[in-house]
Amino acid sequence: MPKNNTENRLVTWSHLWKVGDNISTDHILPSRFMTQVEPYELAANCMAGCVPQFSSRILQGDVLAAGENLGYGSSREQAPQALKYAGVSAVIAKSFARIFYRNCFNVGIPAIVCPAFVEESSEGDLIEVNLEVGLIYNETLGKSYEFTKPPEFMLTYIKLGGLIPYLEEQMSKA
Amino acid sequence: MGLTITEKIIASKARVKNVSPGQIHDVPVDIAYIHDNNGPIALQQFSRLPKAKVWDPDKVYFVLDHHSPSTTFRAAQHHRNIRDFAKQYGCHLIDVGRGVSHSVMAEDGVPRPGKILVGTDSHSVGLGTFGCLSTGIGSTEMASVLATGKIWLKVPETVKVVLEGKMPFGIGAKDVALLILKHFGPCFLNYMAIEFTGPLLDSLTIEERMTITIMGLEMGVKNALMPVDEKLLTKLGTTRDNEEIITADSDARYISEVHFDVSNLQPMLATPGLPTNGTDVSKAEGTEIQQATLGSCSGAFYHDLEQAARILAGRKVHPGVRFVIVPNSSRVILEAASTGIIQTLMEAGAIISSPSCGTCAGYEVGCLASGEVCISTTTRNMDGRMGAGGKIYLASAYTVAASAVAGHITDPRILLGGEVDA
Ligand code: SF4
What is the ipTM of this complex? Predict the structure, then answer.
């Protein structure tokens, strides 16, 4: 498997995890964990509502694919944070719930809309995500999928690691 | 081509003449409100900005409502940090005991027509009842709003929902909400704005309208709006001249227009799994329950307690059922106490808990054991919402109270002394 270049956060190689439609923030991080704020706690309980032992089985840099409406439900940012701290490097879905979508970029995880990829790929596939050109390559299938790139400022969030580093940069310029 | 209310609010705040769906605009925020569930991370993120100050403390409200009064040692520490932060910067603090953020903000007249509000809660869309653009954001984005007072918004497409007919006997605003949710499903309205209108709105109180707008979020909307009318102005104790009232242009462009006539509506249920799983109550009649709940920003207003009391007067909660009532504000409790409703409910065996989110997401109040079934006026019924393995049906306060008496899911109209034309 090719190595991830940690300097460039816009390209990642990884294995794929797959879940279905309407996976809510309650599935990703159930409300009983909502007083937790530390990265290790959030990581440990990631996907506790739908994928058993996710956090101990995921490999650093893996990608999560989902059906329609990923991140349905509450505004809880702990959900994408849990994914991030557990090691998920990107989420790809047929569609996203809007607050979850924004939250992903704000915490530094790219959220990619690509229905055809989700439809045809399976759990365990080896894939490459290239945000810079808007392409996902499924090596297991030997097939590429184009997606619409997010606006430039959102790509900058990902490059820098989220909205806060972006703001820090803006504020230091001001 | 004219503009919808949402488009006009964004255009006026972004100081541009015209906007169209899909455009991204930076807009100033008029009010930001933050609760104790997402506040801790917002403060953590804010502290990563060494030079940051709160842009305008008078526009910032902290509400301690999710774990309230502090339900764990951990929550107590979060509350303390939030209180300290609010004091340090001079922000408003609504401490434990007042109720759920949306209800309290509404009671205090914070949302005003034409404004832009952001809350760290998805159900912030409910304040659109006040003719403003109110939407939910995450904690990191709130940290950014606290520092800059601005946010980027993509102009949403607007769907017009026209509510018509007369509320039938034994039907509540929650039934109307569940009907609309059933029609659109959980993601059909993702990223869109809803503009509610139609003659039915005239007959609904502001709180009943909030029941509907709050539930709008479960269809994925960015915001849900209702036009300003005399009833709303009276509630706010203001007049047209003092407010920034924005109306839709007569030639505004809506991506679609959907009419709902409620005249023949039967009591509704959302079956476990999704709030959009709407069906007639008759489809689950007889399902045994272990818990019945009045709760949440959308389902524990005075009118909900009053509806429950009409069913419970002179009756008893079934011995196999816990009937847990978590009013959404302290004023609801005070009002219900002064009209004798609290007495009626408690004499029947209901449990009254302190005003908070409480049972809505199993925040250490009214949780379910695996295999238990609950019928509830709360907002959501995803698996595990009130405890792993518990099942939740959503319904109106009438249906919840009637089921609490029967010990199983049942049509409330019989206990209300009416005919059932099923
Ligand atoms: S009552 Fe429920 S839906 Fe409303 S803000 Fe609280 S947790 Fe969210």
Answer: 0.90
